[in-house]
Amino acid sequence: MAAEMILDMTKTYPGRTPIRARLRYVVEASTVLILFGPSGSGKSTILRSVAGLEWPEDGSIRFLSRTWLDTKSGIRVSPQDRHIGYMPQDYALFPTYSVIGNIGYGLGTLGSHDRNKRIAEVVELFQLQGLESAKPRELSGGQQQRVALARAVAPRPQLLLLDEPLSALDAPTRLQLRGELRSLLKQLALPSIVVTHDWAEALTLGDMMAVMGDGQIHQIGKPHEVFSRPIDAAVARIVGVETVVQGQVIENSNGLVTVTVNGARLKGLSGDAAGTAVYVCIRAEDVVVEQAGSGMTSARNHLKGRVIDIALQGMMVQATIDCGFQLTATITRGAMEDLHLVPGSSVIAAVKAGAVHLVPRSVA
Amino acid sequence: MNWTAIWVTVKLASLTAGILLVVGLPIAYWLTFSRWRWKFIVESVVALPLVLPPTVLGFYILVAIGPHSPLGRFYSDLVGHPLPFTFEGLLIASILYSLPFAVQPFASAFEQVDRRLIEASWTLGVSKFSTFFKLIVPLSMAGIVTGLVLSFAHTLGEFGVVLMVGGNIDGETRTVSIDIYDEVQALNYAGAAKTALLLLGVSYGVLLLVYAMNRKVWAIWPQK
C-alpha cells in the first residue's frame, strides 16, 4: 500500500456552514501539505481533527497504515496515541516549565539519560543554546516559535501539524523565519501539514497545497500550479494571486531586482528575494492593459504580449496574456470594449515594480 | 481557654481540609471538563451547603449515618459503635458541609487553565491523568491553596452541623464554637470572649491569606 493520507470527514458546528473535507495524497518522508484558505474556512478544524482534538461526527482519517478515525466502525484513536507533533497558532508553551522543561515534556517514556541526550540534540538543532532555563514569558516571539516547534519535534513524531506557524510574529521576523522553517522541515525529513492564509508562506513551504473555502477543499495540487491555474473563480478569489511563474534574478541594485521569466524581463522590489531562483507573483488586478504603442507611464514593466483568452466574470473580465509567460489581468468590461480586446489582440501589459512579488524558490 | 476543644477543632478542620483535597480535586476536574449536559444537577448538589441551613444539613446527615440507615448499620457492624455523636461522624458531616468551599475554588482555577495548553500536552503523548498532575495542578496552585484554606476556616467555625451530628462531648465532639456557646450559657463572658477573639483572629488571618493570593474565590461571587 502506498504511504498515503486519506481524510474524508464532516464536522458541524451549530449555526455555521458544515465542514466537509475530502483529501487524499501520497506522503513521502518530507512532504509538506499546505491547507490554505481564509479564516473561518475550516482549515484549522481539519488540522485539529487530524491531531485528534476535534471529533468529526462522520468520516474517517487514515495515515500510512493506521486508521485514526472511522465513525462507522467506531475507531477513535486518542491524540496521545497518534504520535504527532502539533503546534497551535499561539504556541501554547507551558508557562510553568523552562525551555528544556517544555522540550522534555513529551519525553516521559525515555530514561533520564536518553531524555537528556534527546533534549540536548533538539536544543542544538533549534539553536536554543543559552536559553535552556528561560521561562516562555522571557522569550521573544521568534524564540517562542522555535521552542514550540522543538517541543513538537522532540518525541520524534510521525507527522507534524503546524497551525499558522508564523502568523503570531511581526512582519520582519516572519520573513526571516519563513526560509528557516522551510529548510528545517526538509532537514527533519518529517511529513507535515501546515495551515496558513499567507500565499508567500504556502509557496515557500509547500510541496502540496489544498485550497479551502466555505468548509470545502476546492483544489489540491502543487502550490505554484494551484496559484497559476486555479480551477475556478472561487479558488482564484481565495488564493488572490493569479500569476505565479518561475524566474531567475539577473540583477539586484538600488532596491530594484531584475528577473527574467522565459525571456521576458521584469523589475520588482527587492523584498525577501534571496538567491537567484524565485517565484514571480503578480495579482491580476495589478496588471494594466494598454494598447500597443501608447505613451509612457510610471509603471516599470511594460510587457509586449498577445491576448490568448478572455473570460467574463460578471462586470469584470479576466484576460490571459502571453508575454513570454502567461500573465492574468483583471479589467472592467468597459475597458475591454474600449480597447477592442479579442483573443489575438496585441497589447502591452504594465505592472508596477511594487506589484511584482518575488518569493524564494528552492531548486529541486 | 478550653484547650481540649481547640485541639478537637484543629484536628477536625485539618482532616476535613485534607480529605477534601483528595475528594474535591476529582469532583472539580469532572465539573470543569465534563461535557455532560446535565452536569448542572451535580453542580447544584455540590453548592447546596452554601445555602442550606446547617440544621437541615445536619438533620439529614444524622438520619443518613444513624442506626436506622444501611450506611449507619454497616458502620456499627464494622466498628462496634454507631457513627452519630462521635468524632468520625462529625468528620463526615464536616466534609459534606465544606464541600463547596473546596470544590468551587478548585473548579474555578481549573477553568482558567488555557485549554490549548492541555491539548498540547495530550498531543505530546501525555495521558489525561499525567496532564492533570504535570500541568493543571501547578497552574491551579493558587486556587487549590484557596480551597484548602477556606474549607479549613469554614470547619473551624461550624456550629449547627456540629450540634446536630456531634452533640457536645468533651474531647470528642466539643469544638470551639460549641465551647463559646456553653460559656455564654454559663454566663462566663470572659471565657467566651477569649475564645471568640481567637476564632476571629484565626478566621481573619486565613481570609487575608486567601484574598492576598487570589482575588477570584467563588464561582458565585458578584462580578465587578
Descriptive terms for the model:
heterodimer, A: 364 residues, alpha+beta, Rossmann fold, OB fold (Dihydrolipoamide Acetyltransferase, E2P), 2 domains, six-stranded mixed beta sheet, five-stranded antiparallel beta sheet, 9 helices, 36% strand, B: 224 residues, mainly alpha, 11 helices, 76% helix, globular, disordered C terminus
Would you kindly provide a written description of the structure presented here, covering whatever features stand out?
The complex is a heterodimer of chains A (364) and B (224). With 364 residues, chain A is an alpha+beta fold. Chain A has 2 domains: 4-240, 3-Layer(aba) Sandwich (Rossmann fold), CATH 3.40.50.300; 244-360, OB fold (Dihydrolipoamide Acetyltransferase, E2P) (Beta Barrel), CATH 2.40.50. In chain A, 24% of the residues lie in helices and 36% in strands. Chain A has helices at residues 43-51, 99-104, 112-125, 141-153, 171-188, 199-205, 223-228, 233-239, 333-338; strands at residues 4-11, 19-26, 32-36, 58-63, 66-70, 75-76, 84-87, 159-163, 192-196, 208-213, 216-221, 243-253, 256-261, 264-269, 277-282, 287-291, 301-313, 316-322, 326-332, 346-351, 357-360. In chain A, strand 10 and strand 11 (216-221) form a beta hairpin. The longest helix of chain A has 18 residues, at 171-188. Chain A is globular and about 75 Å long. The mean pLDDT of chain A is 88. The longest helix of chain B has 31 residues, at 3-33. Mean pLDDT of chain B is 89; it is low at 217-224. By secondary structure, chain B is mainly α. In chain B, helix 6 (115-123) runs antiparallel to helix 7 (128-139). Chain A binds chain B through residues 51-53, 78-86, 88, 90, 92, 94-96, 105-106, 108-109, 151-152, 155, and chain B through 114, 116-117, 119-127, 130, 134-135, 138-139.
